[in-house]
Design brief:
The structure is a homodimer.
Chain A (H helix, E strand, L loop, with lengths): L1 H12 L4 E5 L2 E4 H17 L7 E5 L4 H12 L3 E4 L6 H11 L3 E4 L7 H7 L5 E4 L14 E3 H7 L13 E7 L7 E6 H14 L9 E4 L6 H13 L2 E4 L5 H11 L3 E4 L1 H8 L14 E5 L5 H10 L4 E7 L6 E5 L15 E2 L4 E5 L12 E6 L6 E2 L3 H7 E2 L2 E10 L5 E3 H5 L1 E4 L2 E4 H9 L4 E11 L3 E10 L7 H9 L10 E4 L14 H9 L8
């Protein structure tokens, strides 16, 4: 009842106001809420009930949003699958979460026979890309979304306690088996209401949010729920396309969007950037990595009217932990931090016994709040490792300064100084990761007599994919400046070493290259 | 852990920023948080633990706020007593809530021997008006607040589940026995975070909130917690003094305050109003009653830069239900409504079987959300009557219009048309209630050949107090315009008739006077 309340509230107080835009589909709050209630009714008619799971494997769309509300509407849990997962990983996810129903879009429909073979428990499949008239080419065992919505009656809202599981979101994956993070109605609501307030002008009137980051990720779904609480208009892009982003900002008068720093650069670097009117944009949220002072200056030069906001989160916190607000960006000493505690976050840096350390001392970042996960799905041992003494262990080493800003060591160490230029590994990793053959990657600085450090990428290839080091380097040149492009690329097959909390231990990887030498940050 | 997180967060991210102002006492977030943790430690040292109750009987102060956080800090529940309660009522409250500790200020210290006699369970009393040096005149069995804080070590935060009871707040009282509303950490947090977002500029930087409404009331404590979440500065007035309010707005550059409409008028009517600089005020929140179009126009004329915001709440909802935002005040057809659903409120108008009625039809207003009470303290039958099918019955009859605005019939009926002038009963009731002899009162329109309706007050006097009708009328003349002053005052001893949910049934009272006649609103 928590999660779906925001939708019903908007249908109650602004029934005729625009709610979602997806290509040529434009719907009001009354329409979206009615469709959601009918989809919920349709799912209930298929036998989905309290505690059951419904998986989604799809690119972003307005229907994805409706599903995000319809499934908890009847007390079931959404299982949003990573769209970059391989058949192997999807098969694992299906057999782990055991959903009764899978919602799938055109992009992934061809995988269906394989998925059914690997997971015979699938009772129903719903096709998301339906148009008004059901697609005659749709397999007989696949239901048409619009048809289901049209012929179903609105389901009554099931009042559930706040602790009721509303989603299972898979994290990691680089470490072998993904863990399903169980998020309650309360957790997602608390994270989202805090986001809608902290991301201050999100809650102001007239918010128009462009969703270009994947909705399967808790970073994407977090702003989806927050924007609904705030009553903003949702604009959906199926994926990231820098030119389409500029076009949509202009056409729809977008006020907010969220991107990773590499994407920000790609948008700003569009050759015809200046021909678009982006004056409506108020806030640009970036996550996953800090921005360099240089990139902030460049962004401010091209978007002088836009506030930059950095979010730090984890799926286990549904996902909101902390943020670096627009006003914090004015202080260069804070730019490499993950900002300050979010509105509902308790955050400390602690020793191994969960005792808070004095400011400036390095320890593990621990977090808690109403947005905490219920635990890992069917993994009590992993849960016990991650939730200790009422805290969630982030697995991130860091320190807090006197002003409450959290600095993550791996992010700090992630800066490579090469030929006098600062390069953030994360930015390079984001670029490398855009190559279709890359399953995961780590970018570090390795010793170089010429450059001091040189940018080095270590890549684990996707199954059944291959690439040469040169292909990766050529690919990166399209996305980032020359000095940031890896000088060397290495492929490995072993998984990266990870911490107990599942974080890649870059310092372990770095050690192999720096044994016997000094690094700038110990 | 929910409730106290906001305080610790402010101490973490803004330790040296001003947090509270109480007379000449000015303290930072670091100081307030340290004092709160020490008070919590002191209470723990007195044996207060999880599930225990600590009562407060005091006027507003910065120490009252510290107590509001210190008590839940160790898992105990705050019991804020109504400062207008008689000895009889206090005795009932003490024996009902059974607190181990009572915090009391100078105003109520003289009642202590009587209170101890009536409730022998009191183990400790803490005196709130202490100065740096303990008062030598303090009774031996009373602890000095500052002394306790100074000699106690900060208590560790007790991580408690969100459903843990954080407060017992008494409601009603006109109906014989008050009920203790049990509010959880989650309920108060949810209501407060919604207030801090909905009361939009409360969450913006630079909020300075003047607390002149009693903190024992959930309307007062709601904005206390909301302002803390928002990181605003708290200014405390012990009670309502219209001239002091103007002085403080000027001196402290107050941005927000909350008053009832009668108080707003008294502030605006100060003879030297124009000599004060009130340009910093951004939002004026009023509750308990709607404002007439005339009063809104007058207020806008005197405070053209100020947004008016009306809140509708109930203690059972911790207390936030709905609000009429500043922009809603531009539409005269909405002014008599209670606004639209708050950020976390599900609200419907329903029939006796909790089925939602079509818009415009009159039924009972039902509400639900994460801010719902746990129930009434040790009153399972009353709880079962108030919480039905997952909803809280407000006891208010009303309807919802097509735009989601809630209109409460008793408020609508509460308008008296006398000699062509509109008079809101609530405004008159507020004025009557300021007389020290009045325990409770109802103001209605009764038939008048001359005026159509005339303003009539029915008063239940406080025990051991007396007043004549003329005294009440003379008293009212000081507070409200002549045409609003009751033409007639009647005293009664029987309690007013109430609904199952404890609301005074004005229509029953009105009936006695209108039998056989037509009223404008049936």
């Amino acid at each position: 009842m928590y999660l779906t309340q925001s939708l019903r509230r908007m249908a109650q107080i602004a029934p005729d106001r625009l709610a979602t835009v997806d290509g040529t589909d434009r719907r009001t709050w009354a329409q979206v809420t009615d469709r959601t209630a009918r989809l919920a009714g349709g799912l209930a008619g298929l036998g989905v009930g309290q505690g059951d799971r419904v998986a989604i494997l799809a690119l972003n769309s307005a229907r994805y949003m409706e599903a995000y509300f319809a499934i908890p509407w009847i007390g079931a849990a959404v299982v949003p699958f990573n769209t970059r997962w391989t058949l192997e990983e999807l098969s694992y996810g299906l057999n782990d979460a055991r959903p009764d129903v899978l919602m799938v879009d055109a992009q992934f429909l061809p995988m269906l026979p394989d998925l059914r073979r690997r997971y015979p428990g699938l009772r129903h499949v719903i096709f998301l890309n339906s148009s008004r008239a059901p697609d005659p080419g749709l397999p007989a065992d696949v239901l048409d979304y619009e048809d289901l919505v049209a012929r179903s009656r609105p389901a009554p809202v099931l009042p559930v306690p706040g602790e009721t599981m509303a989603a299972i979101c898979y994290t990691g994956g680089t470490t072998g088996l993904s863990k399903g993070v169980m998020l309650s109605h309360l957790a997602i609501w608390a994270s989202s209401v805090a986001l809608s307030t902290d991301y201050a002008d999100l809650a102001s009137e007239g918010t128009i949010f462009l969703h270009a980051m994947p909705l399967f990720h808790s970073g994407g779904s977090g702003v989806l729920f927050a924007t609904t609480i705030a009553g903003g208009i949702h604009i959906f892009h199926p994926g990231f396309d820098p030119k389409a982003i500029l076009q949509t900002i202009q056409d729809e008068k977008v006020t907010h969007t969220q991107l990773v720093p590499t994407m920000v650069r790609m948008v700003l670097d569009q050759p015809d950037f200046d021909s678009f009117d982006v004056s409506t944009l108020k806030t640009l949220i970036y996550g996953a990595a800090p921005m360099t002072q240089a990139q902030i200056s460049e962004t401010a030069a091209k978007l002088p009217h836009v506030g930059l906001q950095q979010g730090y989160g984890q799926t286990e916190m549904a996902p909101y932990i902390s943020s670096l607000l627009p006003r914090h960006h004015k202080d260069p000493t804070k730019l490499r931090s993950a900002g300050v505690a979010g509105l509902c976050t308790d955050i400390i840096v602690a020793d191994d016994a969960q005792r808070e350390l004095p400011r400036g001392e390095v320890g593990e970042v621990l977090v808690r709040g109403p947005q905490m996960m219920l635990g890992y799905w069917e993994k009590p041992e992993e849960t016990a490792k991650a939730m200790v003494g009422g805290w969630i262990r982030t697995g991130d080493a860091g320190f807090m300064d006197e002003d409450g800003f959290v600095f993550l060591i791996d992010r700090l160490k992630d800066m490579i100084v090469t030929g006098g230029e600062n390069v953030y590994s994360t930015e390079v990793e984001n670029a490398v990761a855009l190559h279709p053959a890359v399953a995961s990657c780590v970018v570090i600085g390795v010793p170089s007599d010429k450059w001091g450090e040189q940018v080095h990428a270590i890549v684990i290839a996707r199954k059944d994919h291959a690439a040469t080091p040169d292909e990766i380097i050529v690919h990166c040149r399209q996305h980032i400046s020359g000095y940031k492009v890896p000088r060397s690329v290495e492929f490995r097959t072993d998984p990266f070493p990870v911490s107990g909390a599942g974080k890649i231990l870059k310092r372990e990887i770095r050690k192999l290259y720096w044994e016997g030498r000094e690094t700038s940050l110990a």
